[in-house]
Sequence to fold (91 residues):
Amino acid sequence: MKFLPEEHQSISALLIEGGLTERQYSFRKKRGQLHIEIKDRSDTFCFYRKIESSFDANMKFVDETTYLLGPKKDVIVENWEDVLAAIKVWL
Fold:
């Protein structure tokens, strides 16, 4: 999974809004998931973006993006705003 620039910007803005500086957090990719780590904190927030393609009624490809949250990918959300809301709760 690529870490998209718009994802990086929105997560960084959220973390800075939450009172962190750029030196206090970092991003790491592990097993296809993106982990957000905060200095002096043992837990991380992680997510995975899943894109599936299917055909619509006109036989054209339609991409559907879902996000899987947590190390076991047990929480599924349908849009990026829900991922940001989960990060805010984690903070």
User: Anything to note?
Assistant: The chain is about 25% helix and 40% strand. The radius of gyration is 15 Å. The helical segments are 5-17, 80-90.
